[in-house]
Specification:
This protein is of the alpha+beta class. The protein is built from nine helices and eight strands. Helices cover 35% and strands 17% of the residues. This is Acg family FMN-binding oxidoreductase.
Length: 313
Amino acid sequence: MRSEAIHAALKAATWAPSVHNSQPWTFAVAGEEICVRADADRKLRVGDHAGREMLIGCGAALFNIRTVLRDRGWAPVTRILPDPDRPNLLATVRPGEAVTPDETTRLLSGEIERRRTHRAGFTTLPVPDKLIEALVRQAAAENVKLVPAGDEAALRMLAAVTQAAQGARPQDPEVRRWARPPDSPRKDGVPADSYPREPADTGFPQRDYAWGTETDQSMAATGVVAIMTTRGDSREEWIATGQALQRVLLYACAYGVSAAFHTQALELPHLREFLREELCSGAYPQMIMRLGFTFDVSRSVRRVRRPLSEVLD
């Protein structure tokens, strides 16, 4: 039934990734139409003035809704930014005609609750080139480019810029806001058991969330470094980036590959512009990530999410 599909899609939306697990979204249902809205109170106050990262997270939630509706047998009918007078209304989605879900839809839908964000090093097991090529195609399906760092010079540049950004804001107030101490009952933020107490030396610094847990330090490989870019830098393209990001993450998860995010440099306008001009051929960098294998360590971490009742009007 359509109502059951809508409920399943809303539950799936809450499992989307977001910066610091801030979960910057709310939802409403009018008849059979789902409204996806940005929760501006959860926007990063320092590093995300324009709301770019907030909309990327909401775009990931939107992709989950679309995917689950199609997996339940209904073609999603989506409108992006449907009302100029309501800037926080990012999209509406409703179940359209009956469809038979394809193999990729079923694959992606099955990974929504299994996907985990990784915050450490990877094993030395290489990610197959064919899988990277498939991930590039997945991003392109949402009109976003996924560009692997193809040479050592690009890799060194990305690592250096990320190091510089982390060094510029070592005591990031946003990290403190969203870091969860051990045994915290909160249903948002970054749990203390989801990142290592002593970060692995991958060349890409992780955020300092203050607590951390003991982890296997033998996993210190960088993995495959990639950038997501868009031709422009509009709110529509930020939402598209979120949808492409989630599509890539779910597809990667289905083949045992995890992702670690490094958005520090993209939160500093001058460093983001430097990357756009020097590394991205004028395209706008929206996400920097590392991809690799983890022996399922990240999959065993308990994830926290706000209940649907808290985010649904």
